[in-house]
Amino acid sequence: MGNKYSGLQIGIHWLVFLLVIVAYCAMEFRGLFPRSYRPVINMVHVSCGMSILALMVARLVVRLKFPAPPIEPKPKPMMTGLAHLGHLIIYLLFIALPVIGLMMMYNRGNPWFAFGMVMPHAAQANADAVAMLKSWHIVLANLGYLVIALHAAAALMHHYMWKDNTLLRMMPRKRG
Q: How is the protein disposed in the membrane (predicted)?
């Protein structure tokens, strides 16, 4: 086993990172656009969410097949435990968020779009379910800011303070 994640794992990681940025920006900046753009902005958000869900599941499957490369120098057991907890939270969050979002869109009972296509919807709207799912989606999305910040801070601390290879294991390979 090498000292880096596989190219597939690295690619999925950074693609999810970009999709998360686009999904969050679509919602945060939608007010800057005329209301007539909302359907397109919502479609971008939903399409990113569906892509994140598929990639996170794929990443989990790949992660089960290919173990993580070792951290050198080896961290203390408490740090390893915290890293595992952090990754578990990331996987749960970025699988749960899109699932909840999709359930919310379905239960609205009207046509909605992803990837430019009309998606299935309930024959009848369920306003109570939509309200509950929307509140959870918003809470988890806001929690996502904290989780992302902690994940990035931990990677930077590993690199600059503890001077181990944690960050380097997930960096794209150099060409040539």
A: Multi-pass membrane protein
